[in-house]
Specification:
The longest helix has 12 residues. The radius of gyration is 14 Å and the shape is elongated. Helices cover 35% and strands 0% of the residues. The protein has three helices and no strands. It has one domain.
């Protein structure tokens, strides 16, 4: 059984759904959307079988930790 979407694709399993993970299973990032840093973080999450998006990830240029923690 694959542990990530990438492994599933390599195995030809096109309908693979990863097990549900909670946002407590991985850390959020303050990396700006679209930057190399953010893309590297998304790639690492994908390789680990984690969801791409964390509810507390930075979403905009003027987003900050205080605002994100208020929303969660």
């Amino acid at each position: 059984m694959p542990s990530s979407v990438l492994e599933a694709i390599k195995m030809g399993i096109w309908d693979y759904e990863p097990t549900d993970k909670t946002s407590g299973d991985f850390e959020s990032t303050n990396a700006l959307p679209g930057t190399s840093e953010k893309l590297n973080i998304l790639a690492a999450r994908l390789e680990k079988g984690l969801p791409l998006w964390h509810p507390s990830d930075r979403r905009t240029f003027d987003d900050n930790e205080a605002a994100r923690s208020f929303l969660v």
